[in-house]
Amino acid sequence: MSVSTRSAASPVSAFHQLLAEQIAHEFAASQQYIALASFYANEDLPQLAKHFYGQSVEERNHAMMIIQYFLDRDMAVEVPGIADPRSHFGDFREPIKLALHQEQTVTDQIIALAKTARDEGDYLGEQFMQWFLKEQVEEVAVMTTLQTVAERCNGNTFDLENFVQRELNVAAEADATAPSIAGGAI
């Protein structure tokens, strides 16, 4: 992954290099969530499928926010390719466990980005990462709760589906503090 300034006078910082790599992580998360949603759709668990399709769009939008940040900073960016997502699971709990692990990993990546921006004195970059830090607290909390409920349902996916429909698949208000999304949100 590479990023460059449009003018040769400004070197690319470690923060900008890590942020460019984060685009791939966000797109990979988006694809992984599509794979999870497809697994649940194949298992006739439409509420879990709907939830993870929505998560996929959210992760795609995060990648596009980063792209817009680079564009706003007058920096060229290359859109990366990603590895194939995992698509096969032994039971309905495994995708949730994977999703929680993925969100914990992304949280670590976002923390490293915020720290790097701070260490480099990149106040604009540090401010940009604040929204993502807040977002990751929410994402990890949701996946932790989903994993807990999946364990408590003792294999009764009907109860899990009801929980997801009632608690997770509800229309959320738009976050006015969210960064701009290149091309607009979908």
UniProtKB/TrEMBL annotation:
* GO CC, any one term: cytosol
All copies of domain Ferritin-like diiron, residue ranges: 9-154
> What GO molecular function annotation could you give as one example from this UniProt entry?
ferric iron binding
Gene3D superfamilies listed in its UniProt record:
1.20.1260.10
Q: Which PROSITE patterns match?
A: FERRITIN_LIKE (PS50905)
The alphabetized UniProt keywords are: Iron, Iron storage, Metal-binding, Oxidoreductase
* Domain of life of the organism encoding this protein: Bacteria
Tell me if Iron is a UniProt keyword of this record.
yes
InterPro entries named among the record's database cross-references:
Ferritin (IPR001519), Ferritin-like (IPR012347), Ferritin-like_diiron (IPR009040), Ferritin-like_SF (IPR009078), Ferritin_DPS_dom (IPR008331), Ferritin_prok (IPR041719)
A biological process from GO: iron ion transport
Q: Which sites bind Fe cation?
A: E26, E59, H62, E103, Q136
- UniProt xrefs under Pfam families: Ferritin
Protein name stated in the entry: Ferritin
